[in-house]
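Morning F.,

Quick status update on the modeling queue. The single chain you submitted on Monday has been processed. Sequence for confirmation:
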Amino acid sequence: MNIQWYPGHMTRAKRAMKEDIKLIDLIIELVDARVPYSSRNPDIDELGRQKSRLVLLNKADLANETWNDAWASYYRSQGFQTVKLDSRSRAGLNKIQAAVLEACREKIERDKKRGILNRPVRAMVVGIPNVGKSTFINSYAGKACAKTGNKPGVTRGNQWIRLNKTLELLDTPGILWPRFENQEVGVHLALIGSINDEILDKEELALKLINFLNSRYPQVLKERFGEALGEEGGDEERQDMIADPAHDDESLKVLKSIARIRGCLVKGSGYDLKKAANLLLDDFRGGKLGRITLEFPPA
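Structure tokens below.
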């Protein structure tokens, strides 16, 4: 499963970020708490050299809390200020201001020594598509300042937003990087909805999710779909309805069971595995499978 997605507007967005980086004091980088490594654009480290850094573990309500704490500790050990956040419910927003001031403490002290008082911190908000940047800005500002959506690519241009006398934010479009050297990263980004669904094999993606859940969260699928999950369904099963017949038999059996349990059927031809795959992926992305973290920090 080879996943690559880098539409033309991302090249333009990256070029604009390079121009604007000299105007800012702080980079606020949102990552998805379910995939805190895969959802970090490696280009940001290059763009943000010599800038203060704040990492927000957004959608923390969808990730396992134990691993949220572990990732927060990991990024703090790398020198980043870090806050766990759920932008939709505003949980964690009250910790942002203190984290901004701590991240920019040296800059603020230098300003004071030069007699520059009360100059607002100018922060660039960055992140990959669909990680929740605009939702964060709107929640933090308490009003609709930036466009939001549940698909990648809603924000297309940079815009300054003055929050208060101490902080100004520059909202930027979500950008990826031209090539995923590690395809596991591409799979993780596809699972959280940061890749355009139209280019994906959703059935194959669902099988990868099932395989992971069976390995790391073995009770999750039975809790969601019932104890009968994985049992043989009947004569109408179609082995040729899946893109990769060599895929793990147990994962394929589970996807067929989900199709049977949820009534995803095609008249005269068996199970509608595409519909079942979409249902499973929607459940995962919406948190209906519980709080799941897909990757873990270095030991």
